[in-house]
């Protein structure tokens, strides 16, 4: 669970960073003399290949990957011949093209304990890496982690710049009104000259005083916000429901097709262009969709419905994931909502790792949202998530 939380802190869109690591992936292959190298990140259900060299692949189920063993422990994981290892001999990348045989992986370690993924090299022929080549791989893996951390910092800076831009617009808008009032009243007093009645002057002065007070209050508000700048802000660039829908489709339709499941994503037309922060949304929705695919038989469906409900103080983002799967009984629902659900296998024997829904619940709670589950055994499941979104 702690490992997944470390990965979620990067708040990555796994399809965005192919070019950011392409040179390092190529360098890893050249250093080791292998045909293939991949930069893989592993979440609850999926191995995401965020960049690579020599093999076009974006994702695979976690239980099919070799890198899932690399992240367990140790400094490396090596398989001299995948065909002779019962864990991998029947995997598609061994039996079909590219018919890989050799694997060597270095974990991508955050801090002292959490391996969020792996840098791996693979080849169609058996290889032997010298200590010098292994040391160079470790250096490349460290550089990949440095770039991931840099991307995280850049994302936060972009968010701060966007926030500063919004404050600037607000200040310009809020000051313009009171200042226009002050200037207009002062001009009126000046134009009337000696014909001003004392009562009118006092009334104008009172209005000027009120306008001045509103500017002063705005200044206090800005200074207070500056003092509270240490508070966490939304991580990630702002986007809207249309962008959110596109990212979900690109990331998870391949998973659904692989199991012959129809995945559809719908949005509310009234609010689909309203901007909001993407903070952890792909992690939350992605885990719910992957879980729904896992427990839906072939030929079934999964639908993700996205909507944004206007509110006086904050918009409410509603995410509903509905499937035609095996369903959940009341006891299992209660365990999920308490955060202690046990791992179970999927409808075609997909391995369970026990953390996907626990991670979803944790992330929703940190964002001060709520989750409800509606289901009966054999009748599918509906997950409903509500998350407050700061108004822009």
From TrEMBL:
Catalytic activity: ATP + protein L-histidine = ADP + protein N-phospho-L-histidine
UniProt KW Iron keyword: no
E.C. number(s) listed in UniProt: 2.7.13.3
One matching Pfam family: HATPase_c
PROSITE patterns: HIS_KIN
Classification via InterPro entries: GAF (IPR003018), GAF-like_dom_sf (IPR029016), HATPase_C_sf (IPR036890), HATPase_dom (IPR003594), His_kinase_dom (IPR005467), HisK_dim/P_dom (IPR003661), HisK_dim/P_sf (IPR036097), Sensor_HK_Regulatory (IPR050736)
Keyword Transferase: yes
GO molecular function, one term: kinase activity
Highest taxon of the lineage: Bacteria
Start and end residues of each Histidine kinase domain: 170-391
Keywords: Kinase, Phosphoprotein, Transferase, Two-component regulatory system
PANTHER family in UniProt: HISTIDINE KINASE (PTHR43711:SF31), TWO-COMPONENT HISTIDINE KINASE (PTHR43711)
Name this polypeptide is given: histidine kinase
Species this protein is from: Mucilaginibacter rubeus
Source species taxonomy: Bacteria, Pseudomonadati, Bacteroidota, Sphingobacteriia, Sphingobacteriales
């Amino acid at each position: 669970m702690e490992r997944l939380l470390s990965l979620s802190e990067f708040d990555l869109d796994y399809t965005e960073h192919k070019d950011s690591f392409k040179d390092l992936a190529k360098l890893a292959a050249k250093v080791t003399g292998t045909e293939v190298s991949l930069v893989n990140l592993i979440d609850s259900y999926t191995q995401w290949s965020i960049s690579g060299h020599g093999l076009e692949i974006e994702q695979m189920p976690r239980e099919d990957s070799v890198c899932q063993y690399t992240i367990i422990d140790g400094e490396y994981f090596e398989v001299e011949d995948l065909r002779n290892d019962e864990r991998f001999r029947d995997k598609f990348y061994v039996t079909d093209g590219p018919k890989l045989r050799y694997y060597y992986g270095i974990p991508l370690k955050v801090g002292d304990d959490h391996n969020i993924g792996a840098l791996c090299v693979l080849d169609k022929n058996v290889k032997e890496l010298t200590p010098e080549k292994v040391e160079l791989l470790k250096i490349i893996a460290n550089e990949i982690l440095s770039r991931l951390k840099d991307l995280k910092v850049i994302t936060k800076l972009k968010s701060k710049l966007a926030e500063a831009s919004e404050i600037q617009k607000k200040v310009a808008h809020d000051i313009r009104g009171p200042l226009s009032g002050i200037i207009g009243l002062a001009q009126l007093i000046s134009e009337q000259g000696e014909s001003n009645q004392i009562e009118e002057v006092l009334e104008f002065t009172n209005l000027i005083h009120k306008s001045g007070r509103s500017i002063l209050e705005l200044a206090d508000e800005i200074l207070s916000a500056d003092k509270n700048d240490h508070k966490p802000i939304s991580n990630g660039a702002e986007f809207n429901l249309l962008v959110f829908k596109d990212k979900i489709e690109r990331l998870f339709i391949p998973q659904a097709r692989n199991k012959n499941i129809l995945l559809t994503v719908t949005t509310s037309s009234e609010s689909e262009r309203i901007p909001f922060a993407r903070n952890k949304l792909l992690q939350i929705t992605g885990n719910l969709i992957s879980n729904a695919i896992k427990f839906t038989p072939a030929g079934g469906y999964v639908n993700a419905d996205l909507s944004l409900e206007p509110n006086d103080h904050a918009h409410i983002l509603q995410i509903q994931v509905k499937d035609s799967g095996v369903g959940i009984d009341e006891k299992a629902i209660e365990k999920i909502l308490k955060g202690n659900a046990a791992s179970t296998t999927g409808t075609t024997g997909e391995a369970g790792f026990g953390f996907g829904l626990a991670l979803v619940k944790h992330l929703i709670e940190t964002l001060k949202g709520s989750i409800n589950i509606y289901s009966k055994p054999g009748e599918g499941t509906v997950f409903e998530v509500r998350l407050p979104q700061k108004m822009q």
